[in-house]
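Q: I'm writing up a methods section and want to include an example of the input and output format. Could you take the sequence below and give the corresponding predicted structure tokens, formatted cleanly so I can copy it straight into the document?
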Amino acid sequence: MTHPIRIVDVFTDKHLAGNQLAVVLDAKDIPVRLMQRIAREMNFSETTFILPPENPSHAARVRIFTPGVELPFAGHPTSGTAWVLADEGLVKGLEFTLEENVGPVQVRGVNENGRLMFWMTHPALSFGDVVPHAQVAAAIGVDESDIIDNVPTQVATTGNLFVFVALRDTGAVDKAESDKMRLEKLLRGGRAHGVFFFASMGADRLYSRMFAVDIAEDPATGSASGPLGAFAVKYGIVDRAPKVSLISEQGTKMGRQSLVHIELEYGASKDIPVRIEVGGSVMPVLSGALSEFS
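A: Here is the clean output for your methods example:
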């Protein structure tokens, strides 16, 4: 049996930019061990596999794999898979729920300027450990003075753990270098999945990069972009308001510019938003079929 597969670029409205994603449709007969091997073969930051939902009111169950591990939740795979389901005519309407290992994830599609853009709602946000500036600077290859003094480097998550680092300017962001051994030293013991570092480009735009042990650099990290917005608001890099709209530009240094849209809504808490959404456009690249594997 062959399995239909789509390859799309996520968080971009330009061809051959953004973050690459492989989506395997009708994957119910593929064993988990083979899913991991297929993801390694694709060698994108993530590959998703679409399965029947456990709850019939939901659109699909989605399993997400990097080349090395399965993830409980991820941003560009969620938005990109939602787009593929809609483009393939496999869902009714543009608002539906996907089942991921983190739990149900709500998505909604919006037509903007003739292009379908998918938004995903993040699970609940929490902030974690504060990490010494010197440790983080050494891990990503910048000077400690490149980190903004009065902003802690801190773990935050809505499903995947990231260490967030506020740098002084875009030059410092571009200076960073990914090194597997240095990152393993910082992230060992399950401290986080990766290091997400950024600088302000103005009132509503951030310039970002993300390094991880299993992926040297990610062109767009939707699961980190929601917490990124909340982190930037918490520490005064972005002004707090009842509703905050941001764009995170990521992947530019890699030659795969991505534009990740972030929406935050605040209530009584000054640190924890009551709603976090991340969205972006998707560009189709390839449609095909996976061969039968054993």
